[in-house]
Amino acid sequence: MVVEVTHGCPQQARDALNSLLWFQAKDEAQSRQERRALLAGVARLEKEPVDELTVLGTRYRVVRAEEYAAVDELGAIETPRPTDPEPLTRDWSSGARSPRVDAGLVLDPDAPLSPLQAAERVALRPLAYSGIRFPDPVLTDSARAVESHPDVLLMPAAFLIVERSGGGSWSPGSGLQATAHHARRILDFALTWMEPRTRGLIPYDADRTVDARHPATGTTDKAAAALKEFAEAADRLRAGRCDEVEAHGTVYRIARSRRLLRWGPDGPESPRPSDTSTHTPAALHPRLDEDGTVHFDEPAADEPAN
Fold first, then answer.
1. Cα angle 170-172-174, degrees, rounded to a multiple of 5
2. How far is Cα 195 from Cα 147, in angstroms, rounded to an integer?
3. Among 139, 153, 241, 255, which residue's CB has the most CB atoms within a 10 Å radius?
4. Averaged pLDDT score across all residues of the chain
5. How many angstroms separate the Cα of 166 from the Cα of each of 38, 249, 269?
6. 180-189 and 221-238 helices cross at what angle (nearest 10)?
7. Tens of pLDDT along 141-171?
């Protein structure tokens, strides 16, 4: 994997490939010929919704993964397992860098499996969408994929925040993270910094160091009490491997997520015709010429000149 499989639609993945090739042309190309080939790939991605591209002998493909999670009999989403990896040192600072999801991952459908992993793969092979809430093209594409890409490959677990208010359904509260700790760190920041600002307990223009643990001078008693509840929830999160806290009627949980790639004779499945994107291809970066010069003062190809 050269780009993490976490994007919400095909075009977001194409945009990530666009940026990957642009920065390779800017920082890594060894000659004008190499840079020209990389920029030709960028030019196609700026104009066409391509799902496969060969540049300098490397074949790139946008792949499709299904995300799923285990739930118990009450509908509660699975939390991290004791065997899931954790960093040796837990850094809670807001500036800490999180490892990339799927960094260094090699997709190998023939890699050895444990009996449990093999059983899970076999059980998921016939998985397809069903039910009236899915449009007919989605159901048709899903059934076709079971035949065209009959094998499945299970990607490593990833982690995210889910939340529920008032006994309702769980909803995602973050993107996927490589480890449970990094999802907890994002939740810690959300509880102490983002939620207080979103709810008007701390002004958006307050100093960055002001948070639920460190209220500003002059905070009202009512706001201080509300901030204290957020801070106490965040403190519980830091105590051991805590995976669920509650504050102001919302339950926050660290959930364990899995992703499934379908595999066929030619490799991993690409986007389906019924998959939709939030936007169309476009230029993402300033023009880069064959000599490696970035022209910041020029408009993008799809923007009018001043």
1. 150
2. 46
3. 255
4. 93
5. 51, 7, 39
6. 170
7. 999 999 999 999 999 999 999 999 987 889 9
